[in-house]
Amino acid sequence: MKTVFVLFDSLNRHMLSPYGGTRIPTPNFDRLAARSTTFDKHYVGSMPCMPARRDLLTGRLSFLHRSWGPMEPFDNSFPEILAREKGVYSHLVTDHFHYFEDGGATYHTKYDSYDFIRGQEGDRWKAMVQPHWERLREKYAEGQFSKERRTYKAQNIINREFIREEKDFPSVQVFDAGMDFIDRNKDADDWLLQIETFDPHEPFHAPEAYKKPFETGWTGPILDWPRYGRVDELPEECEELRANYYATVSLCDALLGRLLDQFDRENLWDDTLLVVTTDHGFLLGEHDFWSKNRMNIYEEIAHIPLFVFDPRRPGSHGTRVDGLTQTSDIAPTFLHAYDAKVPGEVCAQSLLPMLDGAPSTYEAILYGYFGGAVNITDGRYTYHRYPPDLRTQEIYQYTLMPTHIYEPFALKELRETTLADPFPFTKGTPLLRVPVKPGTAMSRAYGPDCFIEDDTRLYDLETDPGQQTPLAEADIEARLATAMARIMDTLSAPQEAFDRLSLSTTMSAAE
């Protein structure tokens, strides 16, 4: 068995034609859907980027205990298990630079080998001691320009001076490197290749050829990086931002097409498992917001695409699955594909039985940001439960790896650290119990300090798929709150995770 796992970042499900999207032609996603199984109710777990990847590697949700951070010493990872138990070789090709910052530096080492393609967003790639800032200022919209060193926007401006032709774009190089791995190893067996690109994550930077079909008539400076928050741009600015996202998705579709051509050319459909998905979606003005992290986790963010092709299950090709699935299911799926044992710490399902018609093992699933709402869906309703006050809630991070995205925990965070008893999933290891402090890096960037919305809501996706009108249905809310408590208990959530939401473990026992 061979496996190719394609992971995009911020790829909106509702933009893809297999899911009813019409604004962007995505013929290669259509090609993929015709060959594979399309999952209709696939959801995120922990948010955003690195928390999603921890779920993906370990097969369990992490957001109830930890924000953005590295893989922990006690974590399982599917590449290591496959290598140890089945001799499966794993290779990662990525331009996702968060893997190489403090908060992600223990992920890429789980693979037998890896390629890191440079240049995405704020990757500290090209060195320019004295950039021509005044010339560069003229090129970029005001909100997108910065010359403050060690910021993503300033570094991105420098990096883009070296990305001129299509071949220079990091996502193009990622697929080139992935396809090169396939060419060199197509006659070997027992390997897993992960092709992972940061696109279409912001900034929405695509080659000119992909922008032409979405021209807006914009004549101003480069505008392809929306703020995280409320929409307050002029209509023409909004259209230009969205057009650049469309162009980047179009690039992703073309890159997927090149990979599918290779599958056709090399007859990889005979013996290669192919999985294509993303980590989360991205708001493009829906609900009057840009991006993620600041607002409720609406369907545009939470409900994501997933395609699975298994050559051993020809009856599943071109079909659709309606059962609930989520990001953490990826790990047990790959372990199942190679007949490797699934560790007891995994709290997720293999997707492969669903290709044969088996139902989902979930009646509901949880998702969320650490420190924000705990969200649940049963496929019909979504329920987003917030604590009474995000900024005064008692909450702790549990970790042995105290780093944020690109820096260690601040000393003021660590000074009140205590040692917590082991959780069932930490394999007998006690953890640092770090209180969350207002104003720290985590709280400002993707935690309690940054949320604009914080009111509990219930939506009916059948009658209100756009989540425009919250429901007031006490019986439905009570049922979902009970299910939420039960799943949190299964995940060994700490007591304060229940307390902050006015839930209790007795709710799950009573059910």
What would a concise description of this structure say?
The protein is an alpha/beta fold and 511 residues long. The protein has helices at residues 27-35, 49-58, 78-86, 133-139, 152-160, 170-185, 208-211, 235-265, 299-302, 330-337, 352-355, 411-414, 441-446, 474-490, 495-499, 505-510, and strands at 2-8, 37-43, 46-47, 89-94, 113-116, 191-196, 229-230, 272-278, 283-284, 289-291, 306-309, 320-326, 365-369, 374-377, 381-385, 396-399, 418-420, 431-435, 457-460. The model has no long low-confidence stretch (mean pLDDT 96).
Characterise this structure.
It is a single chain. The chain has helices at residues 27-35, 49-58, 78-86, 133-139, 152-160, 170-185, 208-211, 235-265, 299-302, 330-337, 352-355, 411-414, 441-446, 474-490, 495-499, 505-510, and strands spanning 2-8, 37-43, 46-47, 89-94, 113-116, 191-196, 229-230, 272-278, 283-284, 289-291, 306-309, 320-326, 365-369, 374-377, 381-385, 396-399, 418-420, 431-435, 457-460. The chain is built from 16 helices and 19 strands. Helix 1 (27-35) crosses helix 8 and helix 6 (170-185) runs parallel beside helix 8. By secondary structure, the protein is of the alpha/beta class. The strands form four sheets. It has an eight-stranded mixed sheet, sandwiched between helices. Strands 3-13-14-15-19 form a five-stranded mixed sheet. The relative contact order is 0.17. The protein has three domains: 2-125 and 172-359, Alkaline Phosphatase, subunit A (3-Layer(aba) Sandwich); 126-161, no CATH class; 366-510, no CATH class.
